[in-house]
Prior knowledge:
Blueprint: H1 2-29, E1 41-45, E2 49-53, E3 59-64, E4 80-83, E5 89-93, E6 106-111, E7 119-120, E8 124-125, E9 130-133, E10 140-145, E11 155-159, E12 164-167, E13 170-175, E14 177-184, E15 190-193, E16 196-198, E17 204-205, E18 208-211, E19 219-222, E20 225-226, E21 231-236, E22 248-251, E23 254-261, E24 271-276, E25 282-285, E26 290-292, E27 301-304, E28 307-310, E29 317-321, E30 327-329, E31 334-337, E32 340-347, E33 355-362, E34 370-371, E35 376-378, E36 380-381, E37 387-390, E38 393-394, E39 398-404, E40 410-414, E41 419-422, E42 425-432, E43 438-446, E44 448-450, E45 455-457, E46 460-462, E47 464-465, E48 471-474, E49 477-478, E50 484-488, E51 494-496, E52 501-504, E53 507-514, E54 519-526, E55 528-529, E56 541-543, E57 547-552, E58 559-563, E59 569-573, E60 577-582, E61 586-594, E62 597-598, E63 602-608, E64 618-619, E65 642-646, E66 652-657, E67 666-667, E68 670-671, E69 675-682, E70 690-696
Parallel strand pairs: 8-15, 18-24, 36-44, 47-55, 56-63, 64-70
Antiparallel strand pairs: 1-2, 2-5, 3-4, 3-6, 6-7, 9-10, 10-13, 11-12, 11-14, 14-15, 14-16, 17-20, 19-22, 21-23, 23-24, 25-28, 26-27, 27-31, 29-30, 29-32, 32-33, 34-38, 35-37, 37-41, 39-40, 39-42, 42-43, 45-49, 46-48, 48-52, 50-51, 50-53, 53-54, 57-60, 58-59, 58-61, 61-62, 61-63, 65-66, 65-69, ...
Amino acid sequence: MLYTRFQxxxxxxxxxxxxxxxxxxxxxxxxxxxNPNQPLRVLDYTNKIIYGVAPTGSEIRLYYxxxxxxxxxxxxxxxxxxxAVEPNYWYYSTDMDAVSQFSAPVIVSYIKPGTTTEVFExxxxxxxxxxxxxxxCSGIGNISMFPSLYDPAMITWENQRGEVxxxxxxxxxxxxxxxxxxxxxxxxxxxxxxxxTIGEATPVVEDLDIVLSCNESSRAVQGQxxxxxxxxxxxRQDGGxxxxxxRNITLTPGRYYFSVQNRSGCWSRKASVIVSSSLSAARIDxxxxxxxKADCGQRNGHILGINVITVNNQPASxxxxxxxxxxxxxxxxxxxxxxxxxxLEVYTPGSTCPVKLENVEVEGxxxxxxxxxxxxxxxxxxxxxxxxxxxxxxNATSYRWIRINPDNTEVEVSTDLDLIDxxxxxxxxxxxxxxxxIFRSREFHVQNGGxxxxxxxxxxxxxxxxxxxxxTIRDFNFNTRIKSYTWKDGxxxxxxxxxxxxxxxAGTYTVTVAxxxxxxxxxxxxxxxxxxxxxxxxxxLLVCAPSDxxxxxxxxxxxxxxxxxxxxxxxxxxxxxxRIKINQAGSYFATLGKGTCESPRxxxxxxxxxxxxxxxxxxxxxxxxxxxxxIIKGIDTYTDPEIKIFNRNGSLVYxxxxxxxxxDGKNKGADLPVGVYYYIVKISQVCPAETGSVMxxx
Length: 698
């Protein structure tokens, strides 16, 4: 008994000891100032103790989780409500209520002071719950969680590639980038942090020393740096308002400074960018130049008397170029020149670009002139010789166009000043005047402006059928995009501008296709197919005398025809049932037609001398669908037959004249009695009447 009481005493004191430890932990942590924006967070809990952080003064509500969803759904009402203590901490132990332990996983919510909204613990840790340091733009940093979880072993850290880079409440010495912390509590509820970023290192900028080229007054410059840049500043050496906030800028000679800021707000040092003008150390004096004209076609002109003054009497070198920029001399005085326009370039040892004297002309005596101001080239198109070179003006009196072949051989193609009907290629114009001067121009290029139209495969042609307009021309395939189609019939009349023709009759058709620059024509013939039509089936007819005879075709066709024995067409109808006046017995022929197509003829006979009727002797109008009507076969052959039926007493019970419904055993809608009845059938005025009896059976 004493032992049991001692155990209870020890157990009770251990609980008090653990509670004291936790409270002391809160006291140590409480050196920080209260944070009204502190999110709700469970730092740790066991089967009987739970504690965490929340804004000071918040109402903390503890729920037991719904079975099966320990991380998501709370029960209907909290089992405990407590207050967050100073600063920002809250704590609960089952010992406070003399309960041995929690009966289920616990879910926590809070209501901030001054509000009525209940907020449950978020599974996503906000940026404010972490410390990122240092912020010195070194590109290396540390991240730690605050407040810290009680069990750091539950934590892992991942970089932006999903690689695990650490565990515990802190990672240190990590390179710039984005990191995510993840942990799972003892009840298997998963947490993660918002993306946490360690800032990038300060960009490293590069100094530049730029010397402008000859005749260059400014240059487009791009600031050079290593790292990430989002903001840029260009400044003059003398300060003042920044020139630009872009990496690219156009600079004139002077000293400038370029700096870069990265996404972490770190600015680089100011890089020095010096732009210098090109150097010149010579001056040309042409006030006393002596120019001699050259005779036509001769190299006897010269340029003399030009003086060059250099700084400190530095030695100079010279280059003379003709109008084609071909080097023609390297001395200051230059003899033996043909008529042309020349340029002098003077170089000194310290100079980065030469001093130039341009447009020094040695005129020609009786020289040929050629103006190309109005020169207009015309490309050759469609693979034919339709190019041109026109618009030249000259004082020459004879002309010769020469084509330069790929193997450098030459062929004369025209003696007119304007070159027309030229194939693609290179051409030279050779000119002469009355003083036997000869001038040969530079090469001119007639380009190939577009390929010829080529039909890669012929179209599909569907023939007409029986001249009904069933023909088709479709599915063209050309080597280039066709802009337009123009169709003409055999008489030359334009009737369509479609790429595909349908509903064509047999005949000849021509299409002209065109691109932006070319056209081509093609002619096609649509033939006519005379299709084979199966001949109709026709039975011989027996009539009592000449009369209008009913012809009934069983086939479906567009046209039905009847011919006499001599081949004369007696009737042509679109309806398979029609009557014809037949005046004599003999052979007749029937055909089926479609358009201009016709089937072979089927012979059948028509004979006179009997009515051709088949009259039933009995029928059973009992409604069973079999033999319910008295049907006289062959009566529809006649135009105006008359039928009368009498009972035994001689009373008329049925009468019809002309086409009508067959006798159905009724009189005025009522069924007639079973028995024998008598009929008179008169099919025409010239044929004798048919008489007899018929029995009604039910």
